[in-house]
Fold these 2 entries.
Entry 1:
Amino acid sequence: MTTTPSRPTTSAPASVPSQDGSGSTTRAAGRVGPLVGSAAAEARAHLVEVLDARQQGRSLPGAAYTDADLHELDLALLWQRQWIFVGTVAEVPEPGDYVTVELGTASVLVLRDDDEEVRAFRNVCRHRGARLVEEPKGSVGNIVCGYHRWTYATDGRLIHAPQLAPVEDGGVDPACLSLRTVHLREVAGLLFVCLAPEPPDDLDTLSRTVAPYLAPHALGRTKVAAQVDLVEAGNWKLTMENNRECYHCEGHADLVCTFFPTWGLADHEVPPRLRAAHDRYLLAEEGLHLACEERGMPYAPVEDLVEPPLGFRIQREALDGHGESFSRDGSRLVQRLLGELDEARLGRLTLHAQPNLWCHAMADHVVTFAVLPLGVDRTLVRTTWLVHEDAVEGVDYDVDSLTEVWRHTNEEDAAFVGLTQAGVADPAYEPGPYSVAERQVDDFVSWYVARMREEVSR
Amino acid sequence: MTVNPLSWADPDPVAPALRLVPDLPLPPDPLGADVLPPEASLDQEVLVRRVVPLTHDVVQVVLEPTRPGGVAFTPGQYLTLGVEVDGRHVERCYTISSPPTRPHLLSLTVKRVPDGEVSTYLHDRVRPGDRLQVTGPLGGFSVAEHPSRRYLLLSAGSGVTPTLATLRTMADLAELEATGSALDVVVVHSARTPDDLVARAEVEALAATHPGLRVHWVCETDGAPDRSGPWSGPRGRLTADLLRAFAPDVADREVFTCGPPGYMAAARLLLAEVGADPARCHEESFVLGTAGAPAAAAAAAAAAAQGAAEGAAPAASSRADAAGTEGEVEGHLLAAPAPSAPAPVATSVTFARSGCEVACPAGTTVLAAAEQAGVRLPSSCAEGMCGTCKSTLLSGRVEMKHAGGIRPREIAQDKFLPCCSTPDGDIVVDA
Ligand code: FES
Ligand code: FES
Ligand SMILES: [Fe+2]
């Protein structure tokens, strides 16, 4: 079974009452697309104010999460300029397979071409601009516009335009009407796109660092076992912030079976009630490191969260219980292990990349999370479970059990995010201090402030 | 909107009108021009009014449109009839046998096809007051499309239905009178026995009262003793001699041929033999969409291919109102020459949803065959690029030369592109 969620609505962002006194929230009501003219200048000035107002060690001012104009700037300066995670190679296994991703009003078509290369295009017809491919995913022969049937090869060339005057008769050269390309890079099976004409060059660093960690999981030889789209009622930054700490993990009944609750804490920060769990963690870590060293698999944390446009963190860590997978007792969920792995007890390899990815790779499966903003207070979390391409559903794995822990955890997280969104929109909200377990949240927010400062000053 | 009055200046009423005086006789107006309204969609629910037995195995189904204002079509066109049989929606194409001059009722002439789902239903189960669905009109096999003073209407079996609609229209429009501008129509219809002559009394009465119409029946054999009894008219198969006798001026006639494929193939050869003008020969075939038919269809198609090779054959199309006798018609009523062995084998293409079946000569794409059958498939590039025509193959195989418009995975799911596929043997398409 593949869980096929319905496409989340990407219509006008639900209007959030302006509670921060700026009055700017309602200004954007009904408008779709980037700000222009004086409104743009005003929004930029407001953004700088908000960035200036942020205090180290505390969350962002409310407007950063609730102001529709600031959200437009998030889209324009960040989502349409940085490298964005859009999915994995397993989602486009065969030539003609595609996924579409909306980054604000920009739609990107990611598809595997006839030479088995994954490419990305602007999802806009070169004729009269119709949205080319409507579905969030599917398969095409050539790429055909539904309006007047202009047809593009999978490499973007226009190959059929009914009744378009030929060049000899003064018509436009079809060679000038290829689909507009979008930068796309694959990192060990993870796909990133960038809408900027000149993308930031830090993807290479990420690639060099994380590829050896991901390689043993052989994402190129996986298939999608399930995918679930969940829409959280919160700003995308709250979704990311929530994910960067396990301070709230007591709220995840399923996850705490395998997730050590002292995640993010240094030894001396562990509270006495979690001491036993932490000791178990240390023991499991030792075992994991041994197993990794035997197999030449990297496990040490690498972290560069604040400086680069594509801030990231990667580490292989132990899981509680059997230590194999995200099940109730930590035992594996898929009998067929990924790639050539000969050991199931390899914990979780966790990669986090800003602005919109985290993923866990276990010996038996990989689960990726793509965060995509739908509006200032609506965020799509797309969760995808990958298993070995030869694993057989019903024999090697069961989709319900495979997805159970993260389905529940995501729903719980969605509730936390919704609560936070409601709170930060309340006039009583003021940014509070982070705990020691929330250092990475602080890093994320600092990264956001740095990115936006840099982009807004261009 | 306002109109600039200057651009709509009245023509000067005193300027002499320029008149073209042709030195050749003007071609006649199409049948019903200026009298009948232009064809219009008749898609709607219809009420069954009567079911009248015409012969031992043919009924006339009279339908009443539920939309006021009547229907508009040209004689020879057909419609798609949708019925619910045991909870399933089934569709078949039937010629409209009533004339467009009687726009408030639609008649279909339906022969019982053994095991035919729809014909059995219409014969045995349908009752006045029942509601059916029709869509159309479809097809261009019509004298109205080919204006002429002289016609030869050839038919066999259930192929008589377009002839009936045509004769009724001509008579209603008083086009079969003895005056100078009237039409001259010769009808030659082949049947197995006189018991199988549909609407014989009506057609003979029309001939008796309309000087422009001559009718010739050709029967293979006698009727049953308790029905029509012995047959005294022309017997056996249609031959070149018979054709010359019925229409010595065939070269000057617009010829319409309608019947099962075997009949059509043979008729085509006969017409060539007696000197008919291939450019003025039009045809439509009726194929039985049930077991037993493919053999007839294939043989007919082979003959059709042979005709095509001689450049004399308009491509054949068909509809399914037909008939159980097609298998018998083949080889009995006509002197169909056995196709020479290496002739390229043409095939039968059946469109399951409409029930239409068409003989597809070798080298003809499924899309072209569908168009000729009046089955409308979406298409754009016609070169296998855009995938617009993508359809499902329910049975049989095709040879496809596509240009990226379809994926192997889709092909594995029996999808194909009719615009760039030729049948490899008989096929059934979900369309
Ligand atoms: S807008 Fe795409 S073909 Fe016309
Ligand atoms: S019409 Fe374009 S593929 Fe058939
Ligand atoms: Fe959580």
Entry 2:
Amino acid sequence: MSSEQDHLKDTDTEARFEFKKEQNAAVKSDKGLTEEIIRMISEDKDEPDWMLERRLRALQQYQNMPMPSGWPGMPDLSGLDVEEIVPYIRPDVDKREGVDDWTELPDEIKDTFDKLGIPEAEKNALSGVGAQYESEVVYQNMQEQWEEKGVIFMNMDRAVQEHPELVKEHFMTTCVPPSDNKFAALHGAVWSGGSFVYVPEGVTVEMPVQAYFRMNSEGMGQFEHTLIIAEEGSEVHYIEGCSAPKYGTHNLHSGGVEVFVGEDAHVQYSTVQNWSKNTYNLNTKRAIVEENGTMEWVSGSMGSKATMLYPCSILKGRGATDTHITIAFAGEGQDIDTGAKVYHNAPNTSSTIESKSISKDGGRTNYRGLVHIADGAENSSTAVECDALMFDNESTSDTMPYMEIEESKVDVAHEATVGKIGDEDIFYLQSRGLDDDDAKKMIVAGFIEPITEELPIEYAVELNRLIELEMEGSLG
Amino acid sequence: MARLELTNLHAEVAEGGEKILDGVDLEVESGEIHALMGPNGSGKSTTAKVIAGHPAYEVTEGEVLIHIEEDEFGDDIEIDEDQRTWDLLDLEPNERAALGVFLGFQYPAEIEGVTMTNFLRTALNAKIEEREELFEDEEEDEAAEEDEAGFETSPMEGPADEGEIGVAEFQGILQEKMEQLDMDEKFAQRYLNAGFSGGEKKQNEVLQAAILEPSIAVLDEIDSGLDIDRLQDVSNGINALRDEQGTGILQITHYQRILDYVEPDHVHVMLDGKIAKSGGPELAEALEDEGYDWVREEAYGTA
């Protein structure tokens, strides 16, 4: 074990999250990212030729692209060795059938819930699709109801087999092409698992579509791909939760999310993610929004060594709307570089970005945002608000909001606040009976409230609890 | 019954060492109303903050004791002979709160995202729990803590654990107290002091006192910035604290005005970090008419 991992073991919080699962690899590849490995993955999944070709093309693009560099203040990726990491996907792929029953989950994962201090009832709710009998019945009823309306919700690997036309048209073509960036290219080559959601014209899916825990239970969460297609006038809320730690020992997560928001459609994509602290979390998430469509991104980013994540909306149609609400938490040795991108490419489009970050024990958070308003996107408006909360003088927080405004008839607002958790605030709560820890927890819970109120209660509880756990050990 | 006792209290600013309190002696008992008056900078607010345990001040000499009678916290808590007197200076602010000391702030903090309901219920439960910890023997205490690990302190609104006041029960308590204070029920879902007017903040301080039922409440300029209607509401609330819960009140104020509604049993004048003169309600009237100079003259022999 490296000294770094030793160090990670040092804190209680870390001990709670550092779960290791034995890898029982059926097939083991050589180290290094090669065409042979890509072919092996594709074959293992019985993929059609066109998908294999896409993978190979992405691999080529990956090999020809340089690592991102020259971004002011970008996280240090020098500890990331992709050549060392990629072979680890093989044992993961092995488990692609996944588990659909709580009892089949690895003990480590069940143990995680216990360590998180989540009561039985909550576990049942959180384990989502699987777990308990009652929730299973509910889930199946929902499933049937959706299917009758033509809604598709399935594993992305299966979607390649069962809905090739839809996937062929949308998968890493116009939204996130592999050429977008080096890690999108890597993702295109080695992607595995994830969710496919299709909502037909005019259909509203009332309950959130949840992929809580799915990535974990399928053991392939590191390069999962999520593709959401919401046709004209449809509405869906997709939630991806992964608050339990990854049980692998991987140290790269490079996910891809593509969302197609049709005319007058409304998609909310929410995610609460917590990565083990040796993970490089480098993702590409993007939505294309047609006329009068609405895209809402809600995300809580926890854990990881370094995160680079800037969910993006391209407001392509007139009157399209985008909302971003993000929260980031960085503790010791963590660099969370996250934000939002919005391209206003049509008139009357609007966007709001609300970014919140918390840093402690020398952790760093950075808001990196880009709002682009194209020439001709008249009467568009954008409002960006970034709030940073710091626990101590060692922690840092930066704000890098880029604005590219090519149109003059627009309304642009930016506001940023940075503050340390106030001694007066803590004293006030203490004088009312809360101890120091609880006072800080309450202030942080209040700070992230705009996120938690957007999430179903079980996710909100979970997010709060995770942040509480992160805060433990450093307080006292 | 409870009694707060400040003896020869000296305090200075923790960073910088500027001396502020220079030997304060003061006693407040359950059911009494004391007014603490004095010019700006005389040490009134510092006295309040030192009692509550504000970290910005360092006590260099003296004691702040609270004496608690056996029946102070009802039947649920058994108070041994040797646990009836506590030196507040040895305790954390939240422990002082659990012993029944309340500070009403002149400038209360604004906490975004935390609803009044959630905050007050958490505070009430924290106080109950802290009392148990202070008054139960240690072994039991540890066992109980292990049982509850991870659940008992969540600031999220959730199901109550054993011995806690649940959401529904608390709603009842809150509603009743808010009606008494003539507060709009919408307050319950607003964020703690966030966007409150000056008057609303003061009313909120009294509401918190009403809910936490302290033995001794120190109210720091609770009357500043209030219009006449609000002053009456706040005064009614303070009187109710004394009359219904037997709270002892230390009312810090500049003005006679509030004392027309909250009639003090004792009035103290603070000058240069100590109590220069004490008397009955007539003292406050004399101050209103004649200012502080005559007190200074009387105390020091100079004007």
